[in-house]
Amino acid sequence: MYASTGCVSVKKCDGVKPDLYTNHFDFAERPFSLLPDPDFLFWSKAHTRAFSILEYGLVTRAPLTVVTGEVGTGKTTLVQALLKHIDEDVTIGLISNAQGGRGDLLRWVLSALNITPDPAGDYVTLFEQFQDFVIDEYAAGRFVVLIIDEAQNLAHEALEELRMLTNINSNKDEILQLILLGQPELRLRITDPALRQFAQRVTATYHIEPMDLTTTRHYIRHRLTHVGGTGQEISPQAIRLVFETSQGIPRMINKICDLALVYTASAGHKTVSLTTIKELIKDGVILPTRPLPLYLKNPIEIPERAAE
Asked: Which pTM value belongs to this model?
């Protein structure tokens, strides 16, 4: 049922173009969609290195591999690209936004591997289900890899539970591997002394930094030419302001450029100008992002001075 907007459907609304701006710029599709798409992956220096770390973890059968980065830096897209290169002897379990206490995480793991957990089973029963599956896969010549996205949401207890899962590995073969992806808080959490045993199991780790101005220019032009554009549809001056506003975060760059192309097409122009980006900011259609505040982990208490 449609809300009252003065029209029955989008197709019947005068002036609304379902293609938004693709026909105007002769694009095959939108170049700045917010959906993760490995076909659009731009191999910046940081993303190339992060992908190499992920591949290294798989090839060496590393028990724990960790890749972190700010929201929107392309971690999920990298994983999707990695999945395209997975060998047939690898069984993948993909977990996103796992939360909960002890036992809840194990149910997430079983579900990711298409294992129906025993509804009445206690933790020991669920663990035996998981262990039997991993061993059976190994006996069949396959290795199990668990990829956990948004791992910064996991509590200390859950991270320790993951470490305990790797105890299944024995002898010379690592039959279970864990790949954790998360925001910078995950990296900070792993370095907590309380998780030193977990940190010792991490074989490889990489942090994806935001892009600089030069990389942002190449990134924008890459996506424009990927859909059949010339790569010049956004002016250099506009790109500089896009970079400053987005702080080099790919997802924010996509959001700004996508709306800028809408504004430009609606005005009948062929190039996104600096003025267009300024209008976007002025209109408030771009919500600015701010880095997380820094907190002292062990704040020092300063006694109040006695009244003079």
From this structure: 0.82
